[in-house]
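Hi everyone, sorry if this is the wrong subforum. Our group has a chain we'd like a structural model of before ordering constructs, and none of us has done structure prediction before. Sequence below.
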Amino acid sequence: MRRARVTVAYDGTDLYGFAEQVGVPTVMGRLREAIEKVARGPVEMVGAGRTDAGVHGWGQVISLDLPETLDLAMLQRRVNRMCGPQIAVREMRWAEHPEFHARFDAVYRQYRYHVLNTREPNPFAARTAWHVIEPLQLWAMQLACDPLIGEHDFSTFCRRPKGQENPSMVRRLISAKWSQVDGDVPGLLRFEIRANAFCHQMVRSIVGTLVEVGTGKLHAGDIRALLLQRNRQTAPQVAPPHGLVLWEVGYPTSLPTSSPTTSPTSSPG
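Answer:
Right subforum, don't worry. Here is the predicted structure as tokens:
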């Protein structure tokens, strides 16, 4: 057996998230079924991060062990025929390091969130962007990102995982920015955020709060006060899941032996 590294994209609209669940379609469940059918045996897969129901993926990474004699190009083609177009394996290759672990070896996760800021809806963006009718001030939303950068307790913007006593909500946010997307979809705004790890609903909660700043219901200066309160009840709305995409997972160029000491506790969606 040999460790493989797989990069996966998926439209999460009709899926119940990334992680396997009994009786409902998920990304991992569909992939496992297809890979095991081709490989003719059970496989154990690990994802870089969990995404909730309705959340999409472009750069999700999976690690798993496969027979060394297996033709990965053939496996990729057959899995894509079985799972596509809803789920697509973008890349499948042997890992550079025999101990590669998609979750524990990741040094950052990057998400994108799309907001359609127009009066009228756009059918071609309906599955991948949150439609906000009220005019948004992009400069204010960008200014409100500044207090979030760095290492903080993000309890205000995180849903605490069930069954865990006093879980840490401290995360290191590397970057966060808003931009207007030029192209064929007028009014499309993009939020990009990168951190060492995210807690449950963190990205969607931050987006919902920043949109409140964009509409003028909050001021950019309110963000630091919200962050310091560490109180989930004080955060404004949570943005809907369909605008969120797990865009990229970053790894060091030279991977050490995997260690579970820096794993995220839950999904950001």
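For your construct planning: The chain has two domains: 2-105, 108-249. The first strand starts at residue 2 and ends at 10.
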